Amino acid sequence: MIAVGAVGALALTALPAWTAVAAPSATAVISEVYGGGGNSGATLTRDFVELANAGSEVFDLSAYSVQYLPGAASASSQWQVTALSGSLAAGGHYLVGEGTGSGGTTALPTPDATGSIAMSATTGTIALVSGTTALTCKTAADCTADSRVLDVVGYGTAVVREGSGPATGASNTASVARADSLADTDDNATDLTAGTPTPVNSAGQTPGSGGGEGGGGGGTTEPGTVRVHDIQGTTRLSPYAGKAVTRVPGIVTGVRTSGSKGYWIQDPQADTDARTSEGVFVYTGSTTPTVAVGDSVLVTGRVTEYHPSSTSQSLTEITGPTATVVSSGNALPEPVKLDEATVPDAYTPEADGGSIEALALEPSAYALDFYESLEGMRTTFTDARVVGATDAYDELWVTVKPDEHPTKRGGTLYTSYDEPNTGRVKVASLDTTGPVANVGDELSGTTAGPLDYSTYGGYILQATQLGTLSAEGLRREVTRRQKGDELAVATYNVENLDALDSQEKFDRLAEGVAVNLNSPDIVALEEIQDDNGATNDGTLTSEATLTKFTTAIRAAGGPRYSWRYISPENNQDGGEPGGNIRQVFLFNPKRVSFTDRAGGDATTATSVVKTRKGARLTYSPGRINPASDAWDSSRKPLVGEFVFHGEPVFVIANHFTSKGGDQPLHGRYQQPARSSETQRAAQAAEVNTFVKSLLAADKDAKAVVLGDLNDFEFSRTVTTLTSGNVLRPLITTLPPAERYTYVYDGNSQTLDHTLTTPAVTHFDYDVVHINAEFADQASDHDPQIVRIDVSRCRGH
């Protein structure tokens, strides 16, 4: 066995120069080498290298390789590499299949790893190497000095070998192998002898035990001492994390063959502790699992805790696995029901913002603890309502608590930080493409499968049985047209629209304006990009984008809109790099006029001037204090002065900074920190200060503040924005079941807002649901509209 590091190098100084030596190892060794497979006179059809583990711990092979060098290594000879995966059980074997020939009649047992190296039957060198980079050494001494080399077997007349000489006697019909004791004195001639090839794989199969290459069965059927519930433990972190486990028994309950591949096993012999899950995910990485649902398996590998993100909870896994299939076609364990009776109403334990991972689970008290106690186990629900439409990954959200904060149209309302909805469960199908579902539809009948955890949404039921979609026919809303004396002002986030987008996207968004919003007089648009979108070449204008959009609105039956905006500085307003996102005013010049006051630009602030006729802007369009730190890498509000029926109306279009960087509801830190709220609160304070200056100049000024504020009606952002009662949030004037503009992780919530100054006393406000609840979306936000009877407002 060749040592790692300086010990082997020191040993060389006390021995003859022709001897390669290292300290014997009690872990992985090369136990047998055969290069005659498929040759004349051979019985076996394939060459092989067998590894064995003389130690008491599992040996992880996922970062190792076996490498071959011809026996008479010349300057042009190259090491050939076969990468390994999985692990080598304590006291177990691991079989690497190599080159095949036309001779022989008997296949190897199923190899644990496969290569295509055509090894010589009589002379050559095999090395077990940490890593998959080909070795470059050509002498025994040089190979000894390479710290990546764990073991070497030279046979025949090989130059590279351990000890006084290579193993002898290899041929078309004979391998060289260690004794059953796996003795390793670092002398190939002593440790390995020639004999009939006896390949054994990790399942214990031999050429005569059944299973051949591609087959199954065979091997020991005696479980190890560790069960799945031991691995899962009573907290979110496994007490076996980082440790090897051997022959863990379970029934395969689901197999994932794409993405992060692997399978779930569940022990049908449950313990009596409700905190300890009986299921676990076995991660095979890029290797497609060969097990099937219903297989009874014994899994050997290493327990790890995988965090999909830095703030997420962890997923307990067995990695680097090898598995023995004991039997097939077994009945699956009964799934645990998810419903009002089983899922607690409280969401999560408190940890003062710290991690909850080390806390003992309380599955009867908290929903997150309940789901964690079922991690990897079969779960089920029946007749569940869809509360989050099917996304691009064929995943959707349901609620297993139909009476939990229902919206008018079938969703689940997010009402406060203190009451997250506990009945929301994400669903994906392991076997088929998921149904295209909208909010309010139903998954009828039974859905069942292992409960998994992902960075996107938390707990997710990986369905092996999926209910039938019952569509409820959710319709896109159409708001009424404004009356002649009503000024209609709308806001719409059009999701990174630029001139290079498809005509279909323009047409869908245009229909939303012309038909569903019924052609408002003013539309504040968020997420208009420059004319070439994400191309980062300094382009700033949006003229082509807006020409294409307004033309599409006209084609959909809307008016011929004019527009105003201020181009940002290049890459200074956040959003997609190169996109130069901004807010834009569209307005119908036949109904409302825009008061242009030149001078506003990306870095110049507009302000309010008091006149005998009331307030006016210094620049229109203009920006609110663009030099403020509140707007760093974020969109600056766009302010415009309009006139409707002789009355000035001020409109402030906003797009506050996103929630990026906030800790998730389902994460390991509870309560989750909302770090992004700090900047939004500062932005809200800037707008609040501006509105106060407007009201100081004219207490009856009619202003509409609107846009994507990226925060909830109960947030500090909105509280700051309305401070001093200078603005009224119109979302609070709707019935509670209608207060939402966006759906995220199955929560119907408000991110987009319309607010008005006190003088706006007569209005009709509506959120127009056309996007957020639908799988087929033109944008991820719903637009909203307020119709103001200016003639009846205060100060008229």
Q: What's the arrangement of secondary structure elements?
A:
Layout: H1 6-12, E1 28-34, E2 46-53, E3 59-60, E4 64-70, E5 80-83, E6 87-88, E7 93-100, E8 113-114, E9 124-130, H2 140-145, E10 149-155, E11 175-178, H3 188-191, E12 192-195, H4 228-232, E13 244-256, E14 261-266, E15 279-285, E16 296-306, E17 315-327, E18 336-337, H5 367-372, E19 378-388, E20 396-399, E21 424-429, E22 442-454, E23 458-463, E24 468-470, E25 486-497, H6 503-516, E26 522-528, H7 543-555, E27 562-564, E28 582-587, E29 593-594, E30 608-611, E31 614-617, E32 622-623, E33 638-644, E34 647-655, H8 677-697, E35 703-708, H9 716-721, E36 728-729, E37 742-744, E38 747-749, E39 752-756, E40 763-767, E41 784-789
Parallel strand pairs: 7-8, 15-17, 18-19, 21-23, 25-26, 34-35
Antiparallel strand pairs: 1-2, 1-11, 2-7, 3-6, 4-5, 4-9, 9-10, 11-12, 13-14, 13-16, 14-15, 16-17, 19-20, 19-22, 20-21, 22-23, 22-24, 25-41, 26-28, 27-28, 29-33, 30-31, 32-33, 33-34, 35-39, 36-39, 37-38, 40-41
Overall description:
The chain is 10% helix and 31% strand. It contains nine helices and 41 strands. It is elongated and about 110 Å long. The relative contact order is 0.08.
Features:
single chain, 796 residues, mainly beta, disordered N terminus
